[in-house]
Amino acid sequence: MVPIRTLGARHRHSVGRHLLKLDTADRYLRFGYAASDEQVLRYVQQLDFDRDQVFGIYNRRLELIAMAHLAYGPHPEHHRCAEFGVSVLKQARGKGLGKRLFDHAIVHGRTRGVSMMFIHALSENTAMLKIARKAGAVVTRDGSESEAYLQLPPAGIDTHMEQMLNQQVAEVDYQLKKQARQFWSFLAGMQEIRQGMREGRHKTGA
Q1: If you ran DSSP here, which 8-state letter would residue 153 be given?
Q2: Cβ contacts of residue 195 below 8 Å, gap of 6+?
Q3: Which of 44, 103, 160, 196 supports an S-S bond with 16, CB 3.0-4.6 Å?
Q4: Any idea what DSSP says for residue 114?
Q5: Residue 45's pLDDT is what?
Q6: CA trace torsion 94, 68, 185, 1 (10° rounding)
Q7: Cβ partners under 8 Å of residue 148, min gap 6
Q8: Is 143 left (phi over 0), alpha (psi -120 to 50) or beta?
């Protein structure tokens, strides 16, 4: 199981750092255009963590290496619809993280009563379209752009239990990584202190 953490407003800076690490080609695939740093940060500032769902996967250094945005319809007539977007840093690709985030988004969408999930992607974004097709999504192509939509069944008790378990696992995993990072920082500080003491004794002996 890959621990996936739900992100909130306090993670906005972490989300921004993640997206700014995407190169021009990756930003083109993620946003549909080669977004500048300013445009990326504007997108981050406009994220509505109360309305939407934002998920992330951290590595052992607490670096956000993959994230997904499940945007719900802002109007009441669209409350059963959501759009999915994902990004994975280059060094973390080939591990199925995009698919894990997609599957996670499906679970969350179902628990929120979503019956239709949309994916807007460039036609050259074969990785994302492959994930969507494997999940059973209908994909239509219009030139350089593609639209995919996936019908979601209503959530049952098993779906809600899966969501709760995923949240608990992700939280425990994040806290363990955080403690490990703090401990290694502590050890590094102790090494510096010991080195300083050794150098001090050496000078005194000299």
Answers
A1: P
A2: none
A3: 44
A4: -
A5: 95
A6: -60
A7: 118, 119, 120, 121, 129, 132, 133, 137, 138, 139, 140
A8: left
pLDDT tens digits along 27-58: 998 988 889 999 999 999 999 999 899 999 99
Per DSSP, 154 falls in state P
Give tens-digit pLDDT for 132-169. 888 877 787 777 777 777 777 655 455 445 555 566 65
Tokens of 18: 């993640």
Give Rg (Cα) of the chain. 21
Q: Are 52 and 69 in contact (CB under 8 A)?
A: yes
Cα–Cα distance, 102 to 11 (Å, whole number):
20
| Total-model pTM | 0.70
Q: Does 183 score more than 50 pLDDT?
A: no
Beta carbons within 10 angstroms of residue 165's beta carbon:
11
Angle at 16 between CA 126 and CA 166, to 5 degrees: 70
CA 159 to chain centre: 20
Task: Kindly state the tokens that stand for 76.
Answer: 């009441």
**SS3 of residue 84 by DSSP:** strand
Q: Which of 18-32, 107-121, 176-190 shows the lowest per-residue confidence on average (mean pLDDT)?
A: 176-190
Write out the two tokens for 93: 């690709």
Rounded CA separation 86/132 (Å): 12
Distance (Å) of CA 103 to CA 65, 106, 107, 188: 17, 5, 7, 39
Q: What distance in Å separates the CA atoms of residue 105 and residue 148, rounded to the nearest whole number?
A: 15
